[in-house]
Amino acid sequence: MKSLWDDKEAERLRKAAGDDPAAQDLAMRVYTSRLIGQEADLVLHGGGNTSVKTRRRDEAGVERDVIHVKGSGWDLATIEGPGLPAMWLEPLLQARSTATMADEEMVSFLRREMLDQSGPNPSVEALLHAFLPAKFVDHTHSCAALAIANQPNAAEIAREIFGDELCLVPYVMPGFKLSHAADQIFSQDGAGTSGQFLVNHGLFSFGEDARTSYERILRYTTMCEEYLTAKGAGLMPEEAGTVQHDPDAHAAVAALREALGEWEIFADDLALDLRCGEATSRFLALDGLAEITARGTATPDHVIRIKPRPVIGEAAYGVQEWRDAIQSFASWYADYFNRNAPLAEEPKTMLDPLPRVALIRGLGIVGIGRSAKEARVAADLAEQTARIVLSAEGIGRFTPLNERDLFDMEYWSLEQAKLKQVKKT
Q: Given this model, what pLDDT does residue 103 score?
């Protein structure tokens, strides 16, 4: 990971923000958020979040602490000031003494403390950002970190890599529960640390200025990359798996299109995105591909875009073979829902049971969606997952979040809300 920080550009942005220190802080927060968002191996398609603590005046003219946190649905690569809504910090810190809070209550609570009610909902990890004492906080789902975070002994490996420099946080559902769990761990083990390693989830870094926090997340990611390389399982370069092809030029994809189009959800709107490349080929050639890919997604929030697993077929498949494969997937999905829905805290309504990714052995990966954007996002996430899995299997065993926790994420009301904000393009 190479730092993209540019002193001249940072100074230009700081001056453009004017004399208000809070506006300057926000400008630096936007700048390094965009630097993170430019690197797909750090975050992809809305993943990750960032924050900055500063001071602003309230309606009475009293200067008070505030925190700007990435708004839900915004992408770090293109984020602007309005995408980092501000909240009064003190009420958020007082939430440490609240034992429990439902998801919807947390959203309402965060919105009540927003300075501008027209802004987007703050990230579901806003409280975690608030509880960390540093001025700037960065959170990513870097590929190298996920290859390690999805190991059965992830915490042990992380301790070997980072020593006592990062706090280790076992998997906890993002939101209120994670914010409290991470805060408790930080209060016990956080002295002298400058980040957190979240099992099955990703990395946090923090610092008193934007550049320090940004370059720390790069450093921790690089440490993960170097560990993988030392074990002979370095991440394949992104360009090794990002070659896009015309899906209609391949008979197997045309047959997949016809079979999917027979289902009502895709009858009128169906887009496919085919990717072929060296990393994809190696991934599709893995022994036990079906079992490996059935384990789950590389990071929890991917499940809302690509389902818990892909459908798998062969380059020689015709329409009937795809019909059978898709029907088998739909039956599995219904069973998955029926196994887990009764265990949920509130009633759930099953989403459509169709795949969003097809793995075609001998050809490539296909993203499936109701728009070109949806298909592109699915293909991007699937390609990235392929590279993560190759490295994870190279150092041990790809062991992502278990089915029960993955279901909770897929059917989490706050995560579902993200999809409602995505417009077809």
A: 84
Cβ-Cβ contacts under 8 Å for 201 (sequence gap 6 or more): 141, 149, 169, 171, 174, 299, 300
Q: CA nearest 374: which of 282, 284, 304?
A: 304
**The one-letter amino acid at 108:** S
Low-confidence residues of the chain, pLDDT below 50? 418-419, 422-425
Q: Regarding beta strands 357-361 and 311-314, do their DSSP bridges make them parallel or antiparallel, or are they unpaired?
A: parallel
Instruction: Provide CB contacts within 8 A for 301, sequence distance 6+.
Output: 47, 141, 174, 409, 415
Q: Which of 311, 332, 334 is nearest to 323 (CA)?
A: 311
Per-residue pLDDT, 228: 98
Here the tokens at position 119 are 């802004």
Nearest to residue 5, comparing CAs of 225, 239, 217, 194?
217
Determine the Cα–Cα distance for residues 391 and 320; give it in Å rounded to an integer.
35
Give, as one character, the DSSP assignment of residue 346.
Answer: S
Q: How far is CA 194 from CA 28, 162, 166, 216, 320, in A?
A: 19, 11, 6, 8, 55
Residue 345 confidence (pLDDT):
84
The reported pLDDT for the residue numbered 46 is: 83
Query: Would you mind telling me the total number of residues written for the chain in this entry?
Result: 425
Q: What's residue 422's pLDDT? A: 46
DSSP string of 347-401?
Answer: ---------SEEEEETTEEEEEESSHHHHHHHHHHHHHHHHHHHHHHHHS-----
The pLDDT of residue 293 is: 98
> What pLDDT is attached to residue 194?
97
